[in-house]
TrEMBL record:
PANTHER family on file: HTH-TYPE TRANSCRIPTIONAL REGULATOR GALS (PTHR30146:SF109), LACI-RELATED TRANSCRIPTIONAL REPRESSOR (PTHR30146)
SMART domains registered for this protein in UniProt: HTH_LACI
Keyword flag Metal-binding: no
Keywords: DNA-binding, Transcription, Transcription regulation
Protein name: LacI family transcriptional regulator
KW DNA-binding (keyword) present: yes
InterPro entries in UniProt: HTH_LacI, Lambda_DNA-bd_dom_sf, Peripla_BP/Lac1_sug-bd_dom, Peripla_BP_I
A Pfam family: Peripla_BP_1
SUPFAM superfamilies (UniProt xref): lambda repressor-like DNA-binding domains, Periplasmic binding protein-like I
Originating organism: Dyadobacter luteus
HTH lacI-type domain span: 6-60
Molecular function terms from GO: DNA-binding transcription factor activity; transcription cis-regulatory region binding
Top-rank taxon, per record: Bacteria
């Protein structure tokens, strides 16, 4: 008899007892005598019985699986974050199901419907740039599926959140550009609805104000979070009569687009235009010249979001309050924004 053919029903037939008795014996229920338990367990072991994981999960009302929704797995930031999610999930006996929204609200909503159908225990999510509506996340919560937000958050959703201090990262990057003598600092920002876009734009604006520099609307352009978007916006900035002498990029891909466009146009970095951006350091260091970067603890972000989610799943009571954890970015200065003498 093969391993896959052995069922509780077969064990019950061989021992001439009910299936419910076999089930309770395998769960070590106090309702079953030790003698019967021994008979059931000995036969199960001799037949190499393996319980059906789906049936077990239904009995326990838990699948030990969590969902993860990110905008784009190919983005190095999110692939690193997923690594952090899986690190904690695996250590606590959970599997992960990964979904991509591709920045689209309908894809995100489709993923949440699938998560509900598959009886996933909980969800960690970085919302899509189109996602201003939180109803689909509230519906999951109402079905008993907790949700934890990371990186991009919705202020109105009551849950745990883990994000980076985007304001501080943009403020420090802009101050660095000011300190090296830049006076016409542009910012290619992400999509307007996204929380990180607002926070980074505010940090950029406040740094200019602190140093008595005027905020110029024409030097702030919003872009999709793509290299093509960064390239196109850079062309627009450099076509201005009063072109910038420095550009702050809002993401890895936008910053890569800035770098590529400036090289195509023949501008030298940093002599003609200094460049700095929110960027993965290993990627930024491969560029010529290497790009100054505001790096983020993406792996740790995934770990912390998952720990908070699993605590919600395993807790018998709702938390007294939800917390927002703010992780710190790190400014790494490289050749794209250094003075020649530095």
């Amino acid at each position: 008899m093969t391993k896959t053919s052995v069922t509780i029903k077969e064990i019950a037939r061989l021992l001439d007892i009910s299936k419910s008795t076999v089930s309770r014996a395998l769960r070590d229920s106090s309702e079953i005598s030790e003698e019967t338990k021994k008979k059931v367990i000995d036969l199960a072991e001799s037949l190499h019985y393996s319980p059906n994981p789906i049936a077990l999960s239904l009995l326990k009302q838990r699948t030990h699986t969590i969902g993860v929704i990110v905008p784009d797995i190919a983005n190095r930031f999110y692939s690193s974050t997923i690594g952090g999610v899986e690190d904690i999930a695996y250590s606590r006996g959970y599997h992960t199901m990964i979904y991509q929204s591709h920045e689209l609200l309908d894809r995100e909503m489709s993923a949440t419907r699938h998560i509900a159908q598959r009886r996933v225990d909980g969800l960690v999510v970085a919302i899509a740039s189109q996602s201003e509506n939180m109803d689909h996340f509230v519906q999951l919560q109402e079905q008993g599926i907790p949700v934890v937000l990371f990186d991009r958050v919705l202020d109105g959703l009551e849950t745990h959140k883990v994000r980076v201090d985007d304001y501080k990262g943009a403020f420090e990057a802009t101050e660095h550009l000011i300190s090296r003598g830049c006076r016409r600092i542009a910012h290619i920002a992400g999509p307007q609805p996204v929380s990180i876009t607002r926070n980074r734009l505010e940090g950029y604006r406040d740094a200019l104000q602190k140093h008595g520099m005027e905020f110029q609307e024409e030097w702030v352009l919003h872009s999709p979070i793509t290299q093509e978007g960064g390239t196109e916006r850079t062309y627009q900035l450099m076509a201005l009569r009063n072109r910038p002498d420095a550009i702050l990029g809002a993401s890895d891909r936008i910053t890569m687009g800035i770098h590529w466009a400036l090289r195509q146009l023949g501008y030298k970095m940093p002599d003609d235009v200094a460049v700095i951006g929110f960027c993965d350091l290993s990627l930024a260091s491969l560029m010529d010249p290497p790009i100054s970067a505001i790096t983020q603890p993406s792996f740790e972000m995934g770990q912390q979001a998952t720990s908070l989610l699993l605590d919600l799943i395993e807790s018998k009571n709702p938390p007294a309050h939800y917390e927002t954890r703010v992780l710190q970015s790190n400014l790494v200065i490289q050749k794209s924004s250094l003075k020649a003498s530095e």
